[in-house]
TrEMBL record, chains A, B:
Principal place of residence: endoplasmic reticulum
Catalytic activity: a di-trans,poly-cis-dolichyl phosphate + UDP-N-acetyl-alpha-D-glucosamine = an N-acetyl-alpha-D-glucosaminyl-diphospho-di-trans,poly-cis-dolichol + UMP
Domain of life: Eukaryota
Pfam families recorded: Glycos_transf_4
GO molecular function, one term: metal ion binding
Annotated localization: Endoplasmic reticulum membrane
Entry protein name: UDP-N-acetylglucosamine--dolichyl-phosphate N-acetylglucosaminephosphotransferase
Length: 478, 478
């Protein structure tokens, strides 16, 4: 049974064939006629390079991490090979370097101010005024602080309670620049409440509180849905892809598509693409720019997450550490805040919200919380079983009531410990819910179930966002 | 002889009495009448808090660093107590947090645009236009990357050759924003060369090369003048204080001082302070703003370095690690570049330049280079002696010539190894030069000699900058 684990093989031909594609996308904005979205081309090209760099660097640096004592054992395997930990640092470094290298493409005069003097291909978005550079830089700063704190967490193993405010520290540059630039703190009031508050309400400092809580949520909710190979990375990847899909709805495209949402009862039209004045942006240049901003952050995130998932997939050759969760969570918070679609963003976190709400009785001490809540690995069968929380003393009436409700909803399995006679419950995580309902399964099947759930959640999110949002908001306000 | 080392005692009364001073400086810009330099008040206040935080946090976090295996033994002591290493990370975190918290003071509308509506006390500098925010943020970003890479160097122990380009990576945000903002790449030609090049010459990309080399130099030159308690920190502190003194010459003050440099043969007048249009800024608002920018970065650096030196002083309770050298070096590069006084800045690095030039034969392999070149500690006498580089094979003619010159200049002691008959030389560092010329001494005396040299270097720098620069440049061009 003394298996060992070699590095995952890389197909250099396949990977290197991506190089010319990436290079072409980077060079294209410099050539006449100018493409409609020059910086978008560059972002796409850089993301391809980010993917390639991650795929190559993660295995190359694994040994260095192990030497620096940054490694862990895979608890859900039969072998004992040390697996390098905190490799999210490599992803984060590549990601942030790409974001920095992107600065001249989005903000320099060469690309932005020369539009008038060059032949153009259709409609060209002169992406960013110089003032937006400060917002962009403050976002990178927040991401870098999140990375740094994530890595410090991995090195110093910070306690759970001390960890919670970390994302708030990382949001400080974002918030202060938002403040210095006199950012909008108005909130659109949902239709049913307008008789009370009017259409717009200025929530002032509460808006800043909301923004820092958003980053805390997005960071920690990915971090607690962890423990099996590929879980953190795949969540980050799917949420990023969902955000990208949503962003693409707002861009001007050479073609237009109209989906007859009004047949479902919606008042809003649902148009994708088409020239200026069409698409979901409804002719708002600002909205196009916001979603471009979001794309610039999400495309390279997909690049590094996809590259890392290749090595993090079952059986994992590298662990992400907290660093990756902090990075991805902060990236989502950044785009949600800066591109003003935090409500839509939260919809993409449905499985994480479910997992967090379900975890509350353990997080707040009603139910005992073991250090690891990951499913239990059975060496004989090679399958994962739900892990259990064992009561040391009889539970309170409140706890018993909660457990009974959860048990009725088939979210946990309740049993009695044969020795102590006290109740036992499966741990309150979405992973255990899957195992309770679908039976024991292999680790890679479980992560596939998680991925399917995340994708289903995103489909649902789109349905709610574009099918039902008219119940609460006017069609042309987002 | 089994000594141990307890933490250095803190005088809480003295430290806490600084709190109201810092708080007052922070609140003052909010009160009428507005002080002449409101953001300068805030920077000073924040620096005091940075000092207090560093003094308290460094000993408090030492244990955590030791647990995370970030510690070293003091090679020049009789005891073997593990000393926490990389505590520069704590300094860097406090420093960067302070720089971020400073953003609203320098850039928000509350402080900048309300000037007209508030009563003012004399001349008020409405510090920064919003566009400068991008420059400020890119500087913080570079500092944070330098910190991160410095810490990674401490954790992963990167090899010497791989380390060299690290500061170049950290300068990327600085350079790209400089480029995106169409930064000036003109250089003023020294008078003796003007017949050839004219007064101003646009050096284009060479300017970017110069900027990244500047950061490489400032970072590594502090890093190689290390090895005894307090050496890195005190260098950083004295250079920062010199830069501050230089900056202060350009600010408008309520009084004016004129120093009769013309008596020494200079054509330039040397005026300090006075209202707008006087002082070294010669009425250039831009020059005042540049030197304010520099002060905003240097004041908190002095705060954290002074706080850290308290614990790093002989016998050291904490080591800075590479992190502090990277941070300080990058901070000097940032102000030199952004405030356009890189030549003056280099003058403050005279001892470092001397040390670097002297080290070249060892760095480039002409003379054997042991892993540590720090002076040798003699346990019997408690004194430091020059450490030696021992030749394994006979030196080349070139090496012999160089060593003879250095020996004649009393920079090294040459001797013959009694066993092999091959030559031995004291290591080529400024610390060994002190020991060769002044004889063996205690570690704290040696660091005091180093500090005196650094101060003398700065005095000389000021003399050259303001006494002799008229030979090369017009008086009113800086």
């Amino acid at each position: 049974m003394a298996q060992t684990l070699g590095p995952r093989p890389l197909s250099s031909i396949l990977l290197l064939s991506l190089v010319p594609v990436g290079a072409w996308l980077l060079v294209r904005p410099l050539l006449d006629p100018l493409p409609p979205l020059p910086a978008f081309h560059a972002a796409l090209g850089l993301s391809i390079f980010a993917f390639i760099a991650t795929v190559y660097l993660v295995p190359a640096l694994g040994e260095t991490f192990i030497k620096a004592r940054l490694f862990g054992r895979d608890l859900l395997k039969t072998y004992d090979t040390p697996i390098p930990e905190s490799l999210g640092l490599v992803c984060a470094s590549i990601y942030i370097l790409v974001l920095i290298l992107f600065i001249p493409f989005a903000f320099s005069d060469v690309f932005v101010n020369d539009y008038e003097n060059r032949s153009q291909h259709g409609l060209v978005v002169a992406e960013f005024p110089h003032q937006k550079l400060a917002v962009y830089l403050s976002s990178i700063l927040s991401l870098l602080i999140a990375t740094m704190l994530g890595f410090l967490d991995d090195v110093f193993d910070i306690r759970w309670r001390h960890k919670l405010p970390i994302p708030i520290i990382a949001t400080i540059p974002l918030l202060l620049v938002y403040y210095a630039e006199r950012g909008n703190t108005n909130v659109v009031v949902p239709i049913p409440l307008r008789w009370l508050f009017g259409t717009l309400i200025n929530v002032g400092p509460l808006y800043y509180l909301y923004m820092s809580l958003l980053s805390t949520f997005s960071t920690n909710s990915i971090n607690i849905l962890a423990g099996i190979n590929g879980s953190e990375t795949s969540q980050a990847l799917i949420i990023a892809l969902s955000v990208i899909l949503n962003d693409l709805l707002y861009l001007p495209w050479p073609f237009g598509v109209q989906i007859p949402v009004h047949l479902l009862g919606g008042h809003a039209e649902f148009k994708i693409g088409g020239p200026w004045g069409a698409g979901m942006a409804y002719g708002s240049r600002e909205m196009v720019e916001r979603h471009l901003f979001s794309l610039y952050f999400m495309l390279p995130l997909v690049g590094v997450c996809a590259g890392f998932l290749y090595h993090n997939w079952y059986p994992a050759r590298a662990f992400p550490g907290d660093t990756l969760c902090y990075l991805a969570g902060m990236a989502f918070a950044v785009v949600g805040i800066q591109a003003h679609f935090s409500k839509t963003l939260l919809l993409f976190f449905l499985p994480q919200i479910f997992n967090f709400v379900l975890s509350c009785p353990q997080l707040f001490g009603l139910v005992p919380c073991p250090r690891h809540r990951v499913p239990r690995f059975d060496k004989e069968t090679g399958l994962l079983y739900p892990s259990k929380a064992i009561f040391e003393k009889p539970p309170s009436a409140l706890t018993t009531a909660i457990l009974n409700v959860l048990s009725t909803l088939r979210l946990i399995n309740l049993s009695k410990n044969p020795e102590t006679g006290l109740p036992e419950t499966t741990n309150l995580t979405i992973l255990n819910v899957f195992l309770v309902n679908l039976g024991p399964m292999k680790e890679d099947s479980l992560v596939q179930v998680l991925i399917s759930t995340q994708v289903t959640g995103s489909v649902l999110a789109f349905a709610v966002r574009y099918g039902l949002a008219w119940l609460l908001y006017d069609g042309n306000r987002r």
